[in-house]
């Protein structure tokens, strides 16, 4: 299969977004939009760094890669619309496997009515996938810098699940709810409906949990020039999460990442608004701490009545 035949095989038969003027088929795509902010993000994923054939099928690789990008848009309060994919294909991958990567992307894209509008395909030594996503914010773009003194710190869902799933896949044994954790690792759910459902009048700082809440909370603290206190006993985990070693539980929920939940801060007077929205969506929402002012911008953890600085030790590609 040559490049052009492959492109035709992954091209959509129809497009969902009415703002699209020209999709795949020219040197560039064209879309037209007015009266809304356009939000864009890009991520690059490399085999054996971000995904492995031993723990994921090609379908799940594609699904999870696009989910990670959609989660970035959710953290900005943006509704996903388009995505572009550039892929480096080594000889060790079959055409069928590569096609399955795009099937995984199309599966999650269909939930959000996203359109694939372009990209690039080249051969190379290792599988590398770069995805660019584009979304619209019709209400209010959410920034990490919007946190203020006295805000409540919250997270959606439960934490540590993705790393628990990876542990199960790489350490075969008998586990409680093993399929739940594996699914959370392979097919995470970006919290788009929650982020886009927030009232434009409510000030919320958001960050998606891709590198662990220690890292994401630190990014909010620095951007907003505040400090954050997290209460360990309030951080939400699955009941069966306690089956894993205590050290692993701690590492995964603070530094593991890849849960693609949202961590954020909101003013106390608006707490009930976001609780109500979460209840409407059937989404777990938990208050885990508070924002305060000091000379430095630290994240602190209160555990067993002791307070210590929570280091920013989430995944860092260039460390």
Give a structural overview.
The protein is α+β, with helices and mostly antiparallel strands. It has two domains: 135 residues, 60s Ribosomal Protein L30, Chain: A; 166 residues, PurM-like C-terminal domain (Phosphoribosyl-aminoimidazole Synthetase, Chain A, domain 2). The protein is built from nine helices and 13 strands. A seven-stranded mixed β-sheet has the order 8-10-7-11-9-12-13. A four-stranded mixed β-sheet has the order 3-6-4-5. β4, α3 and β5 form a beta-alpha-beta unit. α4 packs across α5 and α4 packs across α8. The model has no long low-confidence stretch (mean pLDDT 92).
Defining key terms:
319 residues; alpha+beta; 60s Ribosomal Protein L30, Chain: A; Phosphoribosyl-aminoimidazole Synthetase, Chain A, domain 2; 7-stranded mixed sheet; 4-stranded mixed sheet; 13 strands; globular
Task: Explain briefly what this protein structure is.
This protein is α+β, with helices and mostly antiparallel strands and about 325 residues long. The chain has helices at about 5-10, 60-75, 95-110, 160-170, 180-185, 190-195, 215-225, 245-255, 270-280; strands at about 20, 30, 35-45, 80-90, 115-125, 130-135, 150-155, 205-210, 225-230, 260-265, 285-290, 300-305, 305-310. It folds into 2 domains: about 5-135, 60s Ribosomal Protein L30, Chain: A (2-Layer Sandwich); about 145-310, Phosphoribosyl-aminoimidazole Synthetase, Chain A, domain 2.
């Amino acid at each position: 299969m040559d490049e052009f035949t492959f492109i035709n095989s992954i091209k959509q038969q129809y497009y969902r977004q009415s703002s699209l003027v020209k999709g795949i088929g020219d040197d560039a795509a064209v879309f037209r939009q007015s009266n809304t902010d356009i939000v864009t993000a890009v991520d690059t994923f490399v085999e054996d760094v971000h995904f492995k054939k031993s723990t994921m099928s090609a379908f799940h690789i594609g699904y999870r890669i696009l989910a990670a990008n959609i989660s970035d848009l959710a953290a900005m309060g943006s509704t996903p619309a388009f995505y572009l994919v550039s892929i480096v294909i080594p000889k060790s991958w079959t055409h069928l496997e590569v096609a399955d990567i795009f099937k995984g992307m199309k599966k999650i894209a269909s939930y959000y009515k996203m359109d694939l509008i372009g990209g690039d395909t080249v051969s190379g030594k290792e599988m590398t996938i770069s995805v660019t996503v584009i979304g619209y914010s019709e209400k209010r773009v959410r920034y990490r810098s919007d946190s203020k003194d006295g805000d409540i710190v919250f997270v959606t869902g439960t934490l540590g699940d993705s790393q628990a799933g990876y542990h199960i896949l790489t350490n075969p044994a008998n586990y409680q709810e093993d399929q739940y954790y594996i699914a959370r690792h392979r097919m995470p759910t970006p919290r788009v409906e929650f982020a886009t459902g927030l009232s434009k009048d409510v000030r919320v700082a958001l960050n998606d949990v891709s590198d662990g809440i220690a890292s994401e909370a630190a990014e909010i603290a620095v951007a907003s020039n505040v400090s954050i206190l997290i209460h360990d006993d309030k951080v939400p985990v699955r009941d069966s999460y306690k089956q894993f070693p205590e050290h692993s539980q701690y590492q995964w929920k603070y530094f593991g990442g890849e849960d693609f939940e949202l961590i954020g801060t909101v003013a106390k007077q608006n707490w009930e608004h976001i609780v109500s929205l979460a209840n409407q969506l059937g989404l777990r929402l938990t208050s885990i701490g508070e924002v305060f002012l000091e000379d430095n911008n630290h994240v602190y953890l209160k555990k067993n009545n002791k307070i210590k600085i929570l280091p920013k030790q989430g995944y860092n590609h260039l460390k």
